[in-house]
TrEMBL record:
Coiled coil: none annotated. Residues 2-125 form the ApaG domain. This is Protein ApaG. PROSITE patterns: APAG. It comes from Paraglaciecola hydrolytica. Pfam families: DUF525.
Length: 125
């Protein structure tokens, strides 16, 4: 974004959860999100949108209000962190999406979530 008024970054760390993947053909992953408001106005996360793609190319869209039951406000310079999860039918896949945000001045904008991988360790040599 050219102006710094509505500047939000999203960092993601994902991990495989072998203890929560007991069923054959089901692979559980956790992802930890850090949303940082680097803009000049307070913002609120209103909605989320995810595009989840498994190793077979099957795509699932998920959208709805907030994250983990919250629609957090982030003051300038503040961050919000949460952990959530997803179950895939393949040992690898990816996620990407965005958060719909509203700034103090009422402007709506999307904070992009770049594509990230979901991979069972030692799957690829």
């Amino acid at each position: 974004m050219s102006d710094n008024e509505h500047y939000v970054t999203v960092e993601v760390k994902s991990r495989y959860l072998p203890d929560q993947s007991p069923d054959e053909g089901k692979f559980a992953f956790a992802y930890h999100i850090t949303i940082s408001n680097k803009g000049s106005q307070q913002v609120q996360l209103l909605n989320r949108y995810w595009l989840i793609t498994d190793g077979n190319g099957k795509k699932t869209e998920v959208h709805g209000p907030g994250v983990i039951g919250q629609q957090p406000f982030l003051a300038t310079g503040a961050s919000f962190e949460y952990t959530s999860g997803v179950i895939l039918e393949t040992p690898l896949g990816s996620m990407q999406g965005h958060y719909e945000m509203r700034a103090t001045d009422g402007t709506l904008f999307d904070a992009s979530i770049k594509v990230f991988s979901l991979v069972v360790p030692k799957l690829v040599n």
